Amino acid sequence: MLQMTPPPLETAPLEPVSMTSLDKQAPDKKAPDTATAVTAKSGSTFYWPMRLLPASKRAAMFAIYAFCRCIDDIADEPGEPAAKRAALDAWRRDIRDLYIGGAPNGPLTAALKGAIERYSLPRAELEALIDGMAMDVAGEESGSGGMQAPDLDTLRLYCRRVAGAVGMLAIRVFDRADPATERFALALGEALQLTNILRDLAEDAELGRLYLPRELLLAAGIDGNDPDAVLAHPALPRACEALAALAETRFAEARSAIAGQARGSLWAATAMMVLYHRLLKRLRAAGWRDLTARVRVGRRESAWVAVRCMLGIPPAA
Ligand SMILES: CC(C)=CCC/C(C)=C/CC/C(C)=C/COP(=O)(O)OP(=O)(O)O
Questions:
Q1: Where is the composition biased (Pro residues) (predicted)?
Q2: Distance from residue 268's CA to the centre of ligand 1 (Å)
Q3: Which H or E run includes 72?
């Protein structure tokens, strides 16, 4: 087996970035561009697979990622639901304008425009992302925190929008949009989002959210949708295991959709798959008892997995 040392992590200090005013910042030639700064500052598990891509693909993925962060923050940060919906609608207008030839209104929309034009990104997928974030806002006026024990179909729709759409955009950046790669992108998007949901149960409960689907809760003997009550229920591990099993199924579907065909820049998607599959395995091993325990994939590990995948020697999940 080839032995390698993980690459040094990027340590250059980055200026804090205000997520709500991204597109109002004046350009600064010395600072990293906005999409790069947002992505680097995020500490994302997926930073290194994106960072190691060739420059134009990296720029496109950073633009997509920064857009996701921006609309996600609109849904997550404190604020009135009506104001959040208005902010998401403003993004809908910005996206529409980019597709009908309008000028970008700031650095992030400029980065998105570059990615859209270079990789023919479908407008419907960018709009699907906004629709997905809006699902986190809907219902807040009635005192609920948006998603609370949705039915399985609603959860899958949510995953399709907030993660499947990223996959459908990413495969175009990776120059692969054939049906098998689309199946891969959708299965992987769902696998990643379900894993993310299982890791962030406690954090989401603080926002009044509970993404565990009603059917799996009921099958485990949990009847209710109050996040704190459900997370304290003794049968919670059964529901989590059932959702983890569903995530495993999606990982397996993703792997088989591109078996032997992970050519070109699709290595970056393979790295994302390995990283989050490792995370899922660690969550299952931890056993869903202490939801505040930090189960994660570190940045060094993320860089190492990304380098291995880039070199065509992906490590085991
Ligand atoms: C073909 C292809 C590339 C498919 C995958 C699509 C994809 C990357 C979907 C994103 C799903 C997800 C859980 C994002 C969380 O990112 P985060 O940065 O918040 O994650 P973190 O909290 O673990 O850092």
A1: 1-10
A2: 12
A3: helix 55-76
Q: DSSP string covering 245-287, please?
A: HHHHHHHHHHHHHTTT---GGGHHHHHHHHHHHHHHHHHHHHT
For ligand 1, pick from 45, 53, 190 the residue to mutate: most ligand atoms within 8 Å of CB. Answer: 45
Cβ pair 244, 280 in contact under 8 A: yes
Q: 3-state DSSP call for residue 92?
A: helix
Residues 236-249 have pLDDT tens digits of 999 999 999 999 99
ipTM over 0.90: yes
The residues lining ligand 1, judged by C-beta closer than 6 Å to any ligand atom, are: 42, 44-46, 163, 166-167, 170-171, 185, 188-189, 192-193, 196, 269, 272
- Ligand 1, residue 164: give the atom nearest the CA: 6
What distance in Å separates the CA atoms of residue 131 and residue 125, rounded to the nearest whole number?
10
Q: In residues, how long is the chain?
A: 317
Domains within the chain, CATH numbers bracketed: 43-311 (1.10.600.10)
Q: Which tokens belong to 107? A: 């650095």
Give residue-wise pLDDT tens across range 51-106.
Answer: 999 999 999 999 999 999 999 999 999 999 999 999 999 999 999 999 999 999 99
CA atoms of 205 and 230, how far apart (whole Å): 10
